[in-house]
Amino acid sequence: MNPLLDFSCLPHFDTIEPAHVAPAIRQQLDENRALLAHLEQPETAATWDDFVVPLTDAGERLSRTWGIVAHLHGVNDVPAWRDAYNAMLPEVTSFFADLGQNLALFEKFKALAASPEYAGLNPIRRRIIDNEIRDFRLSGAELPDDQKPRFKAMQEEMSALAAKFSENLLDATNAHAEWVSDESGVAGLPADVKAAAKAAAEKDGKPGWKFTLHAPSYIPVMQYAENRDLRARMYRAYVTRAAEFGNTEWDNGPLIEKILALRAEEAALLGFTNYAEVSLAPKMAESPAQVAVFLRDLAVKARPFAERDMAELRKFARTELGLEKLESWDLAWAAEKLKLARYAFSDDEVKQYFPEPKVLEGLFSVIQTLFGVQIAPDNTPVWDSTVRFFRIQREGRLVGQFYLDLYARDTKRGGAWMADAIGRRLTSAGVQTPVAYLCCNFPAPVGNKPATFSHDDVLTLFHETGHGLHHLLTEVDELAVSGIDGVEWDAVELPSQFFENFCWEWDVVSAMTAHAESGETLPRALYDKMIAAKNFQSGMQFLRQIEFALFDLMLHSEFAPGEGQNFMDLLNEVREEVAVIFPPEWNRFPQSFSHIFAGGYSAGYYSYKWAEVLSADAYAAFEEAAPHAGTVLDAATGRRFWREILSVGGSRPALESFQAFRGRAPDPEALLRHNGMVATA
Question: How far apart are CA 358 and CA 494, in angstroms?
């Protein structure tokens, strides 16, 4: 049997090969098309059991098969897997484009919604039907027949462009390296960073140190390297990746223009004014104008704090570091120096207290305490020897399982993410338990020592785990709204951002630290310094996220591709309005903005701040419980968060879930307070 077609167990990552992809996907497509031909017939009743259930079954099999292929394309992007993925991408995209435009299926869903059966269905199933009708409309089902071929062709082209965007960025990242031959050139860098760079050079058969544009190498150079010339070279290479300055085959600029033009055309065909309106149709936010007001209001509130942060940094650089002009490649380095001077600790000092085994122990302890589950190692084939697998149980019953892929690799796309491998649903055989992929790009261990994580790495791990818990701890039995599925995109970051907050609590931090050399727990005095520095330069960081979100929104609502406008000019306009940091003219940030050009955040990057309002306010419930419980790890509040937020997934509107947990509408003041942006007398 083709291992991609075995749904009786977890994926066979030990036997799946690129050659399996085309036969498996084509078989799935053929089976789905045959089923659709049956479901389209008038004699097939428009009922839940006769129509929705078989459609869901077949769609899940195809999605699981393609999901494995897409996952391996992301975590093992070797030529054979890239070719296998790209060879089938047009056929898969074409199928789903046809499915979204299938008028016969659309009419069946509308008939079901108008039937007596609909009123007797539970609210979850009614929500699924309503969502399907909305999505058919957004997929062009109501377009005239003469426009459907063009709409379908656009979907196929946009999928190919998104894949190419991501591949170009990875190839451009992998193509650049900086070599340092003498000890003085690596002054200031932490010992583990130098050891990793030395090992990378030795792997290539060269002396000295090799630094790359992957995060575990790039970020420490920008933060610690005394070698200003090295920082400048690394910075320029990083911010010009996949741009016109390098290999023209990897230039994402033309792809951006094509993607924007296609999205604008899609919006016009669907009867929307712009693509942002299309993007917001299934989200919590009501209109681009509402989002713009939301972002600009936050920008106004954050700006005084950001201006103060920038002024302090410039003054420190001038008076203490001898830098009359603070360049973009100096910012992280100077900020680290200022933090060390002000708070008497460095990120590298903190990093030594977060060895990977202790961090995972602490992470799992938080989950177990709050949500009444148990986490234990499990066994299954994996795609890389460093990947681990775990199971989650509640009272001896399997709840879910997850893969943990923590380390950066040359064949793995950048960033951090959670993806679902299997969704929860009730089948004739019982409950199908969910499975998730949790992927990060942290530094791998060097030698015999375990990896150590920066506090930012720990925050990232908790963030992605929050997404994972949303998927894994669901109690919903209908696949379409189980876990993270069906959740409005601008609420999807609520559990992830919420979960980050625990990384700042002494109860949590003290339990997941042990110095890499001495085994000593993080000293309370050092923790207090971390808390004092928690909102160090938070105004600048906050405003930078507003810049990205507003650029994304305007790009999809006010920008007119192909009419003489340049997306870099638009970005500069946004910066003039909200930014306090102005990078060099040759900075090409959009060419690496994967979230909106190769991910699901187009006209939706605002979701991070939108959901952060919800997450900060949700976490405030734990802060309110702490005086009575003696800890923010209050099991009663944790169970309530699980019951009202995590367990219900997308089975009801996100705002209803939030209000069920908090008993009121969200209050943005908690977000500003958590970021230290509260005016003082």
Answer: 26
Tokens of 77: 């992007």
How far is the C-alpha of 191 from the C-alpha of 493, rounded, in Å?
35
The pairing of beta strand 435-442 with beta strand 417-422: antiparallel
* Complete DSSP assignment for 55-111: HHHHHHHHHHHHHHHHHHHHH---HHHHHHHHHHHHHHHHHHHHHHT-HHHHHHHHH
**Cβ–Cβ under 8 Å, residues 645 and 494:** yes
Using an 8 Å Cβ cutoff, are 91 and 26 in contact? yes
Cα-based distances in Å from 231 to 102, 338, 349, 410: 54, 17, 21, 21
DSSP 584: -
- State the residue for tokens 């712009």: 274
d(CA 609, CA 371): 26
Token pair of 373 as six digits? 């589950």
Amino acid 648: pLDDT? 98
In angstroms, the CA 386 to CA 223 distance is: 27
Alpha helices in 140-208 (DSSP H): 148-175, 191-203
Please tell me the distance from the alpha carbon of residue 443 to that of residue 384, in angstroms, as a whole number. Answer: 15
The DSSP annotation for 9-53 comes to: SS--TTT--GGGHHHHHHHHHHHHHHHHHHHTSTTS--SIIIIIH
What is the spatial distance between Cα 108 and Cα 370, in angstroms, rounded to a whole number? Answer: 43
Instruction: Write down the pLDDT at residue 670.
Output: 86
- For residue 673, the model assigns a pLDDT of 85
Q: Is the pTM of this model over 0.90?
A: yes
Give the angle subtended at the CA of 407 by the CAs of 198 and 72, to the nearest 5°. Answer: 125
| Domain residue ranges of the chain, discontinuous segments joined by + | 3-142, 176-241
> How far, in Å, CA of 160 to CA of 172, rounded?
18
Query: Are 95 and 25 contacting, i.e. CB atoms less than 8 angstroms apart?
Result: no
Q: What are phi and psi of 674, to 5 degrees?
A: -65, -25
Architecture of domain 3-142 in this structure: Up-down Bundle (1.20)
Nearest to 483 by CA among 461, 499, 468, 496: 468
CA distances in angstroms from 681 to 370, 536, 671, 672, 678, listed in the order given: 37, 19, 20, 16, 10
Q: Quick one: tokens of 24? A: 């498996």
Residues 6+ apart with CB under 8 A from 23: 2
DSSP string, 231-290: HHHHHHHHHTTTSTTS-GGG--HHHHHHHHHHHHHHHHHHT-SSHHHHHHTTSSS--HHH
Q: Which positions are annotated as active-site residues?
A: 464
Selection from 103, 105, 124 nearest residue 486 by Cα: 124
Identity of the amino acid at 352: Q
Whole-number pLDDT of residue 679: 61
- Residue 289 has a CB neighbour count (10 Å cut-off) of 12
Give the DSSP letter of residue 518.
T
Q: Would you list the DSSP string of 595-658?
A: HHHTSS-TTTTTHHHHHHHHHHHHHHHHHHHHHHHSSS--HHHHHHHIIIIITTTTSS-HHHHH
What's the full length of the chain, in residues?
A: 681
Per DSSP bridges, beta strands 435-442 and 397-407 are: parallel
Position 680 scores a pLDDT of 53
* Pair 386, 366: CB distance under 8 Å: no
Question: How far, in Å, CA of 677 to CA of 303, rounded?
Answer: 10
> Quick check: 549 and 608 in contact, CB under 8 A?
yes
Residue 313 host element (H or E): helix 288-320
Q: Tell me the CA end-to-end span of the chain in Å, nearest whole number.
A: 71
Segments of the chain with pLDDT less than 50: 681
User: Helices 607-629 and 654-662, interaxial angle, to 10°?
Assistant: 20
